[in-house]
């Protein structure tokens, strides 16, 4: 039997990111020729969401139920899976075994931050073994994750007697993948293949009879961080309707530069570009790493080329999370990259849009040392007393919508209104964990500040807009 269409063998369409426009997403899939899409669960709480979504679109969406090797704690921080996670879900998986397409997403994930100890790897193996046995019991295939664990995953699947296996977005070496091919395993290829040299080599070696397609949506798109790609026009329209007059769009990596510039060209009446290199970058496998001087060297000429056009140098700064700055040299590298960008800002009389996660005091100290003149510290997570050191220097602080669920109330109380501006940091830092944030949500920050400061939202809006124009004078061109 032959089907004239595509099959997306691995995605997460039950993600909250798709809630508002899932009908459009499914319609777009149909128009593109997708005849079936396998929607995977990752956590126990995903299971009812996946089932409900697939019942809504039974002609195209098929459920896969399983427990991922990476879970999240109550604070939304990633952690290693436990057998308890699986035990919470196993009865539901068995209850719906007759209607699901596969057991998944399951597997191993040996990133050091997820498996710092041998016991974590053993816990993942135990959960995977239980799900392989479940798949065998109900004669179901396995939809498998294997990040930073290609060889161990294939070895475990063989050891546990897995029969029908799909390894999704495999990031191991082609030679390791060939071990899976010998076992008859399939490999699904996501759209991010167009920006992955490693996976390009994998495709060349994989036999066609072992290749399937996937999206892993909302992740692994052809363009990094393209969370708004499918509905950017709607997002911009929502922004304007919410009364937002200007939005500063920041780069993080060198590859962001053409994307941000092109996006701001499309909507010049509301979007303004900021170019800079973030202290946290990603390696070829999408894993976070410390910035390097080479990252900045790739784009510094372009930053100077567009200095007249951009509104600020950013996003720049320091990020001293232990997993990013595992060695002291990493902190020195971040400081050097920041110093160069401060000098660039001073050279072209541009403000700085600054990140300072887990590094509030060091960031303010470095900015003072390097002679930074016009500074915005975004989503500051340091102590209020540390922020006051920035206030003394005339620095501004932007407040995101996540303030409604954070412990930074004291910061908002202590910051003078003349040092406060608004931000969203979208798609992150929204009012609800796990949901995509948008520029329109800036009004949530405004309303919260008004409540804390015992002011009207109108006054907060007026003052923060005046502050933003003082900090970013180029915005006047848009607001005229």
UniProtKB/TrEMBL annotation:
<dbReference type="InterPro" id="IPR001130">
    <property type="entry name" value="TatD-like"/>
</dbReference>
<dbReference type="InterPro" id="IPR032466">
    <property type="entry name" value="Metal_Hydrolase"/>
</dbReference>
<dbReference type="GO" id="GO:0046872">
    <property type="term" value="F:metal ion binding"/>
</dbReference>
<keyword id="KW-0479">Metal-binding</keyword>
<protein>
    <submittedName>
        <fullName>Uncharacterized protein</fullName>
    </submittedName>
</protein>
<dbReference type="InterPro" id="IPR018228">
    <property type="entry name" value="DNase_TatD-rel_CS"/>
</dbReference>
<dbReference type="GO" id="GO:0016788">
    <property type="term" value="F:hydrolase activity, acting on ester bonds"/>
</dbReference>
<comment type="function">
    <text>Exhibits 3'-exonuclease activities and apurinic/apyrimidinic (AP) endonuclease (in vitro). Show preferential AP endonuclease activity on double-stranded DNA substrates and 3'- exonuclease activity on single-stranded DNA.</text>
</comment>
<dbReference type="Pfam" id="PF01026">
    <property type="entry name" value="TatD_DNase"/>
</dbReference>
<comment type="similarity">
    <text>Belongs to the metallo-dependent hydrolases superfamily. TatD-type hydrolase family.</text>
</comment>
<keyword id="KW-0378">Hydrolase</keyword>
């Amino acid at each position: 039997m032959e089907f004239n269409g595509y099959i997306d063998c691995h995605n997460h369409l039950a993600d909250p990111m798709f809630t508002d426009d899932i009908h459009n997403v499914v319609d777009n899939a149909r128009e593109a020729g997708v005849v079936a899409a396998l929607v995977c669960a990752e956590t126990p709480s995903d299971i009812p969401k996946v089932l409900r979504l697939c019942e809504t679109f039974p002609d195209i969406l098929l459920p896969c139920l399983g427990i991922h090797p990476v879970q999240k704690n109550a604070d939304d921080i990633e952690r290693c899976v436990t057998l308890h996670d699986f035990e919470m879900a196993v009865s539901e998986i068995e209850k719906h075994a007759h209607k699901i397409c596969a057991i998944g997403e399951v597997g191993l994930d040996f990133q050091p931050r997820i498996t710092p100890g041998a016991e974590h790897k053993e816990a993942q193996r135990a959960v995977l073994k239980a799900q392989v046995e479940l798949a065998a019991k109900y004669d179901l295939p396995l939809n498998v994750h294997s990040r930073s664990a290609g060889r161990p995953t294939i070895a475990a699947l063989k050891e546990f007697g897995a029969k029908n296996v799909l390894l999704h977005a495999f990031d191991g070496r082609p030679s390791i993948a060939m071990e899976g091919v010998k076992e008859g395993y399939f490999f699904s290829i996501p759209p991010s293949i167009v920006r992955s040299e490693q996976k390009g080599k994998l495709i060349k070696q994989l036999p066609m009879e072992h290749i399937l397609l996937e999206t892993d949506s909302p992740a692994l798109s052809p363009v990094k961080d393209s969370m708004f790609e499918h509905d950017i026009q709607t997002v911009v329209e929502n922004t304007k309707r919410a009364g937002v007059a200007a939005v500063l769009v920041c780069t993080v990596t060198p590859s962001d530069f053409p994307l941000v510039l092109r996006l701001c060209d499309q909507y010049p009446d509301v979007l303004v570009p900021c170019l800079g290199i973030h202290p946290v970058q990603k390696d070829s496998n999408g894993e976070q790493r410390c910035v390097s001087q080479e990252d900045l060297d790739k784009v510094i000429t372009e930053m100077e080329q567009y200095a007249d056009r951009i509104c600020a140098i950013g996003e720049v700064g320091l990020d001293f999370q232990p997993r990013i700055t595992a060695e002291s040299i990493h902190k020195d590298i971040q400081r050097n990259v920041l110093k160069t960008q401060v000098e660039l800002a001073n050279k072209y009389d541009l403000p700085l849009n600054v990140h300072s996660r887990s590094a509030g005091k060091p960031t303010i100290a470095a900015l003072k040392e390097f002679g930074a003149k016009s500074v915005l510290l975004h989503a500051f997570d340091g102590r209020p007393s540390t922020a006051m050191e920035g206030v003394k220097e005339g620095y501004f602080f932007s407040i995101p919508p996540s303030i409604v669920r954070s412990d930074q109330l004291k910061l908002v109380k202590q910051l003078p209104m003349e040092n406060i501006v608004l931000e969203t940091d979208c798609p992150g830092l929204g009012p609800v964990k796990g949901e995509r944030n948008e520029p329109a949500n800036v009004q949530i920050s405004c309303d919260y500040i008004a409540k804390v400061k015992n002011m009207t939202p109108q006054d907060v809006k007026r003052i923060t807009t005046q502050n933003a124009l003082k900090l970013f004078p180029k915005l006047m061109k848009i607001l005229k």
